[in-house]
Design brief:
2 strands, single chain, 22 helices, mainly alpha, two-stranded antiparallel sheet, globular
Length: 435
């Protein structure tokens, strides 16, 4: 078999097995914590591709330790640092506190509640992380809907859509944004300037479609009783918000102060946890907020992303990415082509592997940043089509299953496709207008 085809087949088989592992959810128990096992498949796939390609382990390691922005270690440091700040804020009760405030302001009108929840989730997603918002708001919505005697499905769909649409606005909203933007050496301000219009168009389009889909459900009045107050750790919450705000500002001006984004995010995270550790020591705070934050971190993404990076190196070395880029180059309307193809590909291999692969594909295409931003749109909005499209979708489905909420794979695909396709088209139109 031709080596190019062999490497492509190994990659495809690895992705299929990996998705099967994600859906079946077997776990590994390491150091008193359960880890998803999909990353083990990616790791084995990377080793297999090294064996059957011409690249050496030294070549792969040197590629990962390069001094450029493509360095996956730097990208992972940026993602893990920003995620740790978001998880910390969740541990202080910040997100649940805002959710309660939103419910109290909405009253008994579902339409008002719908709009306020959409705005709240959207704004929080822009400045934190879509994964954290989904993990925090999903249980809250389920419990609230049960007590208010209304269907949770419209609100769950709204939350998941908002989190995976407005996450495009800033680089920090999704790890795929971070990876693709870093690969093309795109700074914070330039990214926001390009993605603002596509994100707004996508967000407005998605909200309008969801309103049409669930207008009958929303006509019923919500029977909202007294909403229980949420306990917050106010001093630590203020610290977290201050550090997050400062970090966001510094990321926005990173190119002007000549500091790489991964250094800024890392230093902000270290500063936060150092200050919190000292504060807890002085005030004898036994909330274990730092250990709880570390326990909830998605550490499995580290071997997963590194393994996928090695596989893409092998694909690129054996000209597979050039073949994909050549195929897409023959299709009309490149902004729409890359937006739709990246979204569909994300639902075959998950959006993180897709983003790693499409970095090389976009570079080989000759379209540069147009393909980059189109792939970013696909990596975010593509998560709406099936639960496989993003890790957030898999976690979301797990939470619903644990809470006894019936939301079948068929319903997910049906609602998700109706929302995603027009949203992808609207975002691609905005991107094409900007360029």
């Amino acid at each position: 078999m031709n080596q190019t085809y062999m490497v492509a087949v190994i990659f495809a088989i690895t992705c299929v097995i990996m998705i099967a592992m994600i859906l079946k959810k077997p776990t590994l128990h390491i150091v008193k914590k359960d880890f998803s096992s999909y990353w083990v498949v990616a790791l084995l796939g990377a080793f297999t591709m090294l064996l059957f390609s011409n690249i050496t382990p030294t070549y792969a390691i040197n590629s990962m330790l390069s001094s450029g922005s493509v360095n996956p270690i730097k990208i992972l440091v940026l993602f893990i640092s920003m995620t740790s700040i978001s998880v910390f804020l969740d541990e202080t009760g910040f997100f649940k506190y805002l959710a309660v405030k939103t419910l109290k302001l909405a009253g008994n009108s579902q339409y008002k509640l719908f709009l306020m929840l959409y705005i709240t989730v959207s704004v929080l997603t822009v400045f934190t992380s879509n994964d954290i918002i989904i993990l925090t708001f999903t249980p809250f919505i389920c419990h609230f809907a049960k007590n208010a005697n209304i269907s949770p499905v419209p609100y769950l769909t709204l939350e998941f859509t908002a989190a995976n649409t407005w996450s495009m606005f800033l680089i920090i909203g999704n790890p795929t944004n971070i990876y693709l933007a870093s690969y093309f050496n795109t700074d914070f301000a330039s990214y926001t300037k390009i993605m603002a219009l596509p994100t707004v168009l996508a967000g407005v389009t998605a909200f309008g479609i969801i309103l049409l889909l669930f207008k009958k459900d929303l006509k019923k009045k919500a029977e909202i009783s007294d909403v229980k107050a949420i306990e917050i750790n106010k001093p630590l919450m203020i610290m977290g918000l201050f550090i997050l705000s400062a970090c966001t500002v510094l990321l926005a001006i990173a190119s002007y102060i000549e500091l790489e984004m991964w250094i800024i995010s890392f230093l902000c995270a270290v500063l936060l946890f150092t200050v919190v550790a000292v504060f807890c020591r002085i005030h004898h705070d036994k909330s274990h907020i730092i250990s709880n934050t570390m326990h909830r971190m998605p550490w499995q993404l580290i071997p997963f992303v590194l393994s996928m990076f090695v596989m893409v190196i092998a694909l690129d070395f054996n000209h597979v990415t050039e073949f994909i880029a050549g195929f897409l180059a023959n299709l009309p309307m490149p902004a729409l082509t890359y937006t739709l193809s990246s979204a569909l590909f994300a639902n075959f291999v998950n959006n993180i592997p897709m983003s790693v692969l499409f970095c090389s594909v976009s570079q080989s295409s000759g379209l540069g940043q147009l393909a980059e931003y189109a792939s970013i749109i696909g990596s975010n909005v593509g998560a709406l089509i099936t639960p496989v499209g993003a890790l957030a979708g898999i976690m979301w489905a797990d939470i619903l299953n644990g809470l006894g909420i019936k939301y079948t794979f068929k319903s997910f695909v049906k609602n998700g496709t109706l929302i995603a396709i027009p949203t992808l088209v609207a975002a691609a139109f905005g991107l094409n207008f900007v360029f």
